[in-house]
Design goal:
membrane; MFS_trans_sf; mainly alpha; transmembrane helix; Growth Hormone, Chain: A; transmembrane transporter activity; elongated; about 85% helix; Major facilitator superfamily (MFS) profile domain-containing protein
Length: about 220
Amino acid sequence: CLAVIGCGGHLGWTSPALPYLTNTAHAITKGEGAWIVSLYTIGGLLGSLLTPLCVDRIGRKYSLLTFAIPQIVGWCLIIATREIMMLYAARFIAGIGHGGIYNLITIYLGEIADKSIRGALGSFLKVSSNIGTLFITAVGAYLPYWQLNLVAISLPILFMAVFTFMPETPYFYLIKGRTEDAEKSLMTLRRLKNPESVRADIKMMSEAVEEGKRSKKNLFIEL
């Protein structure tokens, strides 16, 4: 998944970047380097907390696209400056995108994937992150700092360009009561043209959505 590969790129960026930043005219200290690494994780915590605010409001698809924006903003700040406070801000902002993407991509894949491959797709998320980390680390060994950053920013941009054409999940449409859109989404995902071929699955999904709503309501009453 391009989104997670992009997150892995941010994780791997510090490996080639910190040696460069500690050996320039405006060299950073070891303590500042540690903060550059840590602020990405702190931003990720905030991103995870923000996910529930948008996932059922604007949908899984547009939430993922929204959280890709902080990743791009982070790279833009890194490209634009070597000022330490701006690097701090860049890493924190990018981390927000990381936290949101990891939460949302799990939901998205879980709602569009067939049960037979759902587990495999979940495992592939970690592989994708490692691919991104390996890619940026390898590129950083051969390219100068500014070119490394330009290559890295292409990952979230490419994700947004490609993912724009992906459908929203049927479950989100059913939560919003848009059954016809849910059928169209499922037909697109399965490359089918006849609505009747997905009606049985849509019915099961609708029952699961209603059961989820009842569970939430009962939990709220108990609390």
